[in-house]
Amino acid sequence: MSAPDGRELRIVGFLCNWCSYGGADTAGVGRFVQPTDLRIVRVPCSGRIDPLFIVRALISGADGVLVSGCHPRDCHYAAGNYYARRRLEMLKQFLPVTGIDPARFEYTWVSASEGQRWQHVVTTFTSRIHDLGPAPRMTGGNGYAELADIERAVQAGQGCPCHLKEVRS
Amino acid sequence: MSRQFISHDKMTAWLDALSRDRAVLVPMDDCGTVTFRPYVPGRKALLDKMPVRAPKEGVFPQTETLLRFKYDKDPENLDRVKVQVREVLPTQKAVVVGGRPCGARGQLILDRVYNCDTMRDPYYVSRRENTLYVTVACTSAESTCFCHSVGSGPDDSEGSDVLLVPVEGGYVAEGVTERGRELLAEGDFESASQARMDEAGAVISRTRGQLGEAHDYSDAPRKLLERFDDMDFWNEQAAICISCGACTYLCPTCYCFNMTDEQSGLQGKRLRTWDTCMSFEFTLEGSGHNPRPTKAHRLRNRMGHKFAYYPELHEGLIACCGCGRCIKSCPVSLDIRAVVQAAQNHNAVPEEAEEKADA
Amino acid sequence: MSVLQELKEQIRAALPELDMVLGWEQGFDALHMRPLFIRTEKDLERLVLNPLCVHSLATYLPGLLRGAGNDKKVGLVVKGCDSRAVIQLVQEKLIPRDRVVMFGFGCNGIVSLQKLEAGAQGCSGIGSVEFAGDKVVLSAPDTKVELPFAEIRSGKCETCRYHNAIDADHFAGARVEEGAVPAKHPTLEEFEKLPLSERFAFWQEQMRRCVRCYACRNTCPMCVCRDHCIATSRNPHWLTQESSTAENFMFQMIHVMHLTGRCVECGECERACPLDIPLMLLRRSMNGVVRELFAYESGTDPDATPPLLTYQVEEETINERGW
Hints:
Strand order of the largest sheet of chain A: 2-1-3-4
Strand order of the largest sheet of chain C: 2-1-3-4-8
Number of helices of chain A: 5
Oligomer: heterotrimer
Largest sheet of chain C: 5 strands, mixed
Structural class of chain A: alpha/beta
Strand content of chain A: 5-15%
Number of domains of chain A: 1
CATH class of chain A: Alpha Beta
Order of helices and strands of chain A: EHEHEHEHH
Largest interface: A-C, 45 and 63 residues
Number of domains of chain C: 3
Distance between the termini of chain C: 64 Å
């Protein structure tokens, strides 16, 4: 069942195979109702996750990205999620300088038996993304490609999109 | 020889008129630098500044979609896949206003490669036929300018449809080609007085003076080929190079490209994008072998191509326009003039070599 | 004895044991120096030392020192920022400390050619540049322009805390006193006042200008993958060939992510960019995150462990129970 307002946005989930994917399975087995916007990519461990996966997803058009792994101290591979925790926290704090809303990326820890928690995580995150709306996309390029951008902006009543205040050291 | 004249504000009106049914690319402020950007009424054209990027973008854009394709699976027989292909031929009319003579020279070099007896690139030819060049002559020369040493000059009109020489209050205009003259008819040009034409001549003379003496590169092809196997020479010349590619992407005469299929799901497009011979992947073969494995090999190729191989194939035309962008934008200030001259001076007695080497 | 003369003496004494020493020499005009590879006394005569010596020579080290059986010993002249790059490369075991000899000196800042050209409007054909105390005199055939050095100094020098090379094997001249500097770079401070949507629009604009020439990547002393960079590989296929804003921005993300905990803020990326894109905004922000989360400063301690290569079971700075 899709989200309350009927639209489905594109949310990508990176789940570790042992805990979180198992948790999602448990939620499925228990027939817990969740919005269907989230599409899962299974990885062996949250430590496998390169922060660039999340950035690539966001830049390519994902409206939200959710990462889930085993609880710290419970990683199937002992220390994978410790590394993940550092990388993902770093990414979350770095995103604001790019202009991408850090609320569109979330990471959490869900174990294999926590079906209900998984349902809660997905429902809450999806509803947060719906509140934020579709993510802004980077468009266009140089030369002739810029013409299309100008036309689009002019038609949208924004006038010629000339550059913003310069910030340079 | 008659010329026309247009004042600065009538110039703006002319650009407005041109932009009604054509894409007009002009030098424009780009967050502090100057590049070619589309002109729409209200935007300010900076015709006295030479853009960082080259005017070849009008006929040879950095990224070009050649065709789009789509796979259709036959539901009756999943082994059978149909593919639809749609060509994307550029038909937009355009005029590039504000390039310099050195930039226009790029067209001469690209034309011989992309539109000749044995080869006709339909995408390039379509753009070339639909794009006109209004070139602005130079009123000053920089330390990196050497157009006069490679067969061009501050008022060289080859490759342009219209040549504008800046004078007090406006420009003296010459319709170089038939289509250039038609373009002039769309603007409020008046007949240029003798005084104005003299002023234009004086402007060019002054610029020529600033350029100094031209260097003779006529024996460069032979001298570069003599150095071909001398890897010590090339290792020394390439020592400071960091193999980025800034020189190739900003060069008005560079024309190498890459073709890749970018697919997403069952559809995609075939792109042509600029490629740089300074990168390792440029000549990397599927087997893993690379005939140009080091930056020394790649620098040898770049210098050789511009000053030896191309001139040998094309009646002495040097594939370098002397604009100096590669020198200015190189992060380590590697100077193409110094490299070619080092090859020319090689074998001379060391003291003589030092005397001969000039900027 | 001037600092340059002292430096030359030190290099002269060390040269017999070294394969080469990297320094700077006069470039194609008065405003441009270029890297110099010194092997002989004749090469040494060409060495210069002035605020136009902007290049970080550390970027050549991995290429010169790597490979099985390579026992080259290389010296290089380093500004404070350059020495941090060397230390970081040593920390990551990308170059061996015992085969690198650093010649340090006290640096008061380098010139930003962008600012110099802006300040010297109307002065064309500059034939000579003189650095006299806190003034810079530019001479052209028909004009002379005097500018305060502070006005044309590179922005990165505003927050420099390492005027003197760290861990230098030789040091020429007197040490420069480190003054107080703002903790956060003023441009980043200004940028962070913008709302998210404006920041996004800013990068949209800047990435439209990018030519994907990779000058930023290749000048970066920390970028050692060189020919095998994932940005230009087809397998894995991270970036398409399209030079669209989205792909250009993705490249910057790749670069910044791969520099997490490694970037020494030498500013070479921004200097090398032919389009003057303000790349340092992203890198300074990342370094701020690293400093806050892991209390780590890259390029200062050759024995430190990079923060992403280690972990704490209990992280004081990370709220893991979050939501």
